[in-house]
Amino acid sequence: MIHKTIALLAQLPLGTPNPDDNQPVDFSDPFNIVVFIVLPIIAILLYVYWRKQQHKK
């Protein structure tokens, strides 16, 4: 009885996005390259620079 209740609670409601419906990222689009590659690299570099500045003070 408990196993059936847990299985019912674990189901996704209708109309919600399902993780299985996702498409892979298309890197032929320049926007995706900027958002998923360039911006994270810039954010990491800025963080490292900021931490070095904080360490000098």
Automatic annotation (TrEMBL):
Membrane-crossing residue ranges in chain numbering: 33-50
Q: Which UniProt keywords apply?
A: Membrane, Transmembrane, Transmembrane helix
Please state what the protein is called: Adenylosuccinate synthetase
